[in-house]
Design a protein that fits this description.
Elements: H1 3-22, H2 31-44, H3 50-59, H4 63-72, H5 82-96, E1 102-107, H6 113-124, E2 131-137, H7 140-148, E3 150-152, H8 155-165, E4 176-179, E5 182-185, E6 193-197, E7 209-214, H9 223-236, E8 237-245, E9 260-264, E10 269-272
Parallel strand pairs: 1-2, 1-7, 2-6, 7-8
Antiparallel strand pairs: 3-5, 4-5, 8-10, 9-10
Helix pairs in contact: 1-3
Length: about 270
């Protein structure tokens, strides 16, 4: 076989090993994205081939979380895409305020920056006390990072700018303090946050929600898995509930599209009909 054919076969075998041995399902992730990440993994782990990665996966006890870190791309920032959060304040928060209690599902929470951003927004809008936020991800190490609420101080400058652009009503320092070389999030923001492992590839609806946010995740799925995930969001949402996606994502070509209306297409915020 040609080199490209061999590498494609290695990718398929590794994906099958992840699923059958560890129940991590990347079978419907976009192949081009998985291949790019595995190329990065080869460099990071000093593996000459993907087969070497598979051998380490199957034989080294602590290798799995390292590989999952590479495959799930746990990168985000506070108030990422500030206009999205500004639109939530304008278009979603007024409706959430009409409910006696609110449930929010953040799918693909990564290391928690979006969870913190949303908690800050809800606190400023007087909603945090009556809201339960369910933050889920398939990467256990990312979830543990998110729960700790401790970040590099480098986030402060970017967070300050994004927070201001997102319509923040105070100062980011009201919620994040710097000490001993780290930035720590105010622990009171975590009072109503529940962190949990959940896979959009294999698991069922997580909770009944008034708002679901899943940003910059669907772009890594193939169309079948995008449809599956969007179906979970639809089934999770109450009638009139809201869905937020990343700025490179859209419901436009997915099976659930007729069951939603665009509240803010520019910022990818939709409402279930």
């Amino acid at each position: 076989m040609r080199d490209e054919e061999s590498q494609n076969l290695e990718v398929e075998l590794l994906i099958e090993a992840l699923f059958k041995r560890f129940n991590y399902d990347f079978r419907q992730y976009a192949r081009s994205s998985v291949q790019r990440r595995l190329q990065h993994a080869m460099t990071r782990f000093h593996c000459p081939t993907i087969s070497h990665i598979q051998a380490r996966l199957l034989n080294e006890k602590n290798f799995l979380p390292e590989l999952i870190d590479v495959l799930t791309v746990p990168t985000t920032e506070m108030f990422r895409d500030p206009t999205y959060f500004a639109s939530l304040r304008a278009n979603v928060v007024p409706v959430l305020k009409t409910y006696p209690s609110v449930r929010i599902w953040i799918a693909g929470t990564s290391t928690g920056e979006e969870v913190v951003s949303l908690a800050i927004l809800l606190k400023e809008e007087g909603l945090l006390e009556k809201t339960t936020i369910y933050a889920t991800d398939i990467n256990q190490r990312s979830l543990e990072h998110a729960q700790r609420g401790i970040y590099d101080t480098e986030i402060i400058q970017k967070a300050t700018f994004n927070y201001r652009e997102a319509g923040g009503k105070g100062s980011i320092s009201d919620y994040i303090s710097v000490a001993y070389g780290s930035a720590k999030v105010d622990p009171t923001l975590y009072k109503n946050i529940v962190f949990s492992d959940h896979s959009l590839s294999t698991d069922a609806v997580f909770t009944e929600a008034h708002f679901v946010s899943c940003r910059n995740v669907l772009i890594y799925f193939d169309r079948a898995l995008q449809n599956r995930a969007a179906g979970l969001f639809r089934d999770s949402l109450v009638r009139g509930g809201f869905l937020g996606l990343g700025n490179r994502e859209s419901l436009r070509f997915l099976e659930v599209a007729p069951q939603f209306r665009a509240v803010d297409e520019t910022n990818r915020i939709y409402q279930k009909l």
